[in-house]
Amino acid sequence: CYCSPYTKLRLANGFTTELFKKGKTREVDWFSLSAVILLLCTAPFLVFFFVMVCDQYQCSVSQPLVELYSGEATLRSIWEKAPSFTWTAAQIYTVWVSFQVVLYMCVPDITHKFLPGYAGGVQDGARTPAGLINKYEINGLQSWLITHALWYANAQYFHWFSPTIIFDNWIPLLWCTNILGYVVSTFAFVKAYLFPTNAEDCKFTGNVFYNYMMGIEFNPRIGKWFDFKLFFNGRPGIVAWTLINLSYAAKQQELYGYVTNSMILVNVLQAIYVLDFFWNEAWYLKTIDICHDHFGWYLGWGDCVWLPFLYTLQGLYLVYNPVQLSTAHAAAVLLLGLVGYYVFRSTNHQKDLFRRTEGKCSVWGKKPTFIECAYRSGDGGLHHSKLMTSGFWGVARHLNYTGDLMGSLAYCAACGFGHIHPYFYIVYMTILLVHRCVRDEHRCSSKYGKDWKRYTDAVPYRLLPGIF
Ligand code: NDP
User: For the residues 8-33, what does the mean pLDDT come to?
Assistant: First the structure.
């Protein structure tokens, strides 16, 4: 695999862009490096902390800190009280991941044949920086449906295992997911040096931590079809999301004899988000995760550990704190969640439609307005693109993120106001999406130069019109 420096290329439109060239390495600034090392060292403990506080402190985030401060508890005593790795959890997790691999690799999609409007089966990804267009077997919706049908059949008829199985093994499963997360990230790291899928699409920096965390290979694959990014993000992570929530609801039923309206809201709102993801899996191939990010610890460990454990904190919280919401509160949460989802989906849909039809479509009943842009690709070729300035994309530059944040806030608000624990999600999503917005805009500014400036003049706000 070649090393790649960024080399500055002056564009026809008077701005510079950064391109990779073979043969040298890119420098990492000290700030990025510190952030990478900090995340590598703290993220696994943060996940442990949020799960452990529910197990030992009824989800109170401050209680363990108070006890540590007063000497009532020590880090060692907290650690020793936490359930450890078990072979039962290892078996459950092995069966789970293997089953998802089988569904991903061995069951070609048939749902697109009878679901109108659904784009499944073999689909093209976006062009990689080296100019490749990868093919993907889009069968996530089918995997989700089969998995959930089996879950339902087990709960209703077969009774092979209890529906609370995930909750009952939650911390032992945390160790198993960490093992897979580190194995996958380390494998992807070593693979990039020894047998990269496409050497031209590798990105090396001069720093080993940065390479490990942000990834070297763009689209690592085993064989022709096992794509690391698509599999790890979607399958063990997002298919599991709704099952984890169902397991929490089953636990509430077992412990209290009823399921709270807050738990139902969290299950329903998050299931809409998950189903939306799988319904639009082909569209996902064109998002930043697949189009721009390389596969390293950030995606590998994040998909295996961070996503299933921290995206499901609300359900976990509600097992320990069975909040029953007033009708008005529940209605407000539902409304916020649905409006957020509408803004998120419609914004993404408008851009997708606009780009697919090259602007020859109708947005909010009118022909969309746009700015014509030019940019150069890595091979020096001049290309043209369009940035829409009407519809949601004329209100702010990233209303899809705003809608996502409204939905995230709704999940948290469904848990009431007893503890800050379930609100970690909205804090995290705000940091993630604001950072992503800044990162994306930096890239777009390098790519489109003065045309991007024209766009930001026409649409001055990022997430909240008049504020940010
Ligand atoms: P976007 O779908 O917003 O894509 C950004 C790209 O769109 C830009 O790089 C640019 O690409 C193009 N673009 C920007 N402005 C315009 C415009 N006005 N008209 C046309 N094209 C434009 O970003 P993401 O891929 O990050 O997000 C996709 C969705 O996934 C979002 O809704 C986000 O909320 C969600 N998401 C959720 C996460 C979660 O953990 N829950 C994590 C990350 C994302 P180009 O170079 O082609 O011009």
Answer: 47
